[in-house]
Amino acid sequence: MSTQLARQHQNVKRLRRLVGRRSARQAEGVFVLEGAKVLSEALDAHARIEAVYVAAGATGEAVARRAFDAGIRVFELAPGVMEQVADTVTPQPVLAVAAYIDVPLDDVVATARSLVVCADVRDPGNAGTVLRSAEASGVGGVVSCDGSVDLYNPKTVRASAGAVFHVPVVAGGDPLHVLERIGEAGFRRLGTVARDGTPYTDVDLTGRVAIVLGNEAHGLADDVGAELDELISIPMEGRSESLNVGMAAAVLCFEAARQRRERVGAR
Question: Contact, 63 vs 36, CB < 8 A?
Answer without folding.
Answer: yes
